[in-house]
Write a structure and sequence with these properties.
mainly alpha; Helix Hairpins; elongated
């Protein structure tokens, strides 16, 4: 054998061994949850199609048995036997579908829980990284400083808004204001000419004849 042939033979054997190792590695690792769920769905579809086929075959065998019930008893019995076998297969497929469906749902739930836990772990790592640069003691000191500065700001605001100068009695100021109003009222009355004066002459008295006539009228009214 030539050196070139040996070389190609060695390369082919090494490539085949590497490919076998890769296949062994993949088989040992196992399929992913998505691949397994996809395979289970394909199996469900295949079995569902098989169910439809068996149901149609059962109907056909039943029609054959009815058709040959009185004419050809042997053919009718053969059709009923085939119908029974098909019904058994259909029952087995129903059980298999239930098992596959249960397995697929369990796998989907496990995959969902795995993804949730993975995301929660990722969020926990991010939170830990954020809190690494935080010191609880420093935070307490910072909050205490903020509280103290707020108290100082409040004191400054109260000092600025406090009025300057002496404080006066409010009752005295109101009394003085009332006096000023009274003086202003008197000045306005004087400017208008003051109050009307009382007449000095006496009012005229009634005459004697008028008084007598009034008396007579009153007596006549009382006698009635």
């Amino acid at each position: 054998m030539s050196k070139i042939a040996k070389l190609f033979k060695g390369s082919s054997s090494s490539s085949s061994s590497s490919s076998s190792r890769s296949k062994h590695h993949r088989s040992r690792g196992g399929p992913s949850p998505q691949e397994a769920i996809h395979k289970l769905r394909e199996t469900e579809e295949m079995l569902t199609k098989k169910q439809d086929y068996l149901e149609k075959r059962i109907e056909q065998e039943l029609m054959i048995a009815k058709k040959n019930g009185t004419k050809n008893k042997r053919a009718a019995l053969q059709a009923l036997k085939r119908k029974k076998r098909l019904e058994q297969q259909l029952t087995q497929i129903d059980g298999t579908l239930s098992t596959i469906e249960f397995q697929r749902e369990a796998l989907e739930n496990s995959h969902t829980n795995t993804e949730v836990l993975k995301n929660m772990g990722f969020a926990a790592k991010a939170m830990k990284q954020v809190h690494e640069n935080m010191d609880v003691d420093k935070i307490d000191d910072l909050m205490q400083d903020i509280t103290e500065q707020q108290d100082v700001a409040q004191e400054i605001s109260e000092a600025i808004s406090r009025p300057f100068g002496e404080t006066f009695d409010e009752d005295e100021l109101l009394a003085e204001l009332a006096e000023l109003e009274q003086e202003e009222l008197e000045e306005s009355m004087k400017s208008m000419g003051g109050l009307p004066s009382v007449p000095s002459s006496k009012l005229p008295t009634a005459r004697p004849s008028q008084r007598a006539s009034k008396y007579n009228i009153a007596q006549a009214y009382n006698s009635k």
